[in-house]
Amino acid sequence: NMNIDILITDIEMPEMDGLELLQNIRKLELNPKIIILSGYDDFKLVKEAARLGIENYLLKPIEEDELSATLLNTIDKLENEMRTKIRIQESYNFLRENILYRWVTNNISDEELKNRAEFLNLNLNANYYMVSIVRLLKRSIQDSYDTNPGNLLFDIRNIVSKELEDYGNNIMFATVQGDLVILFSWENEEVDFKSAVHLLNQCMINIKRNTQNDVFITIGPAVSG
Question: Which of 42, 43, 95, 187 is the most exposed place for a label (fewest CB within 10 A)?
Answer without folding.
Answer: 43
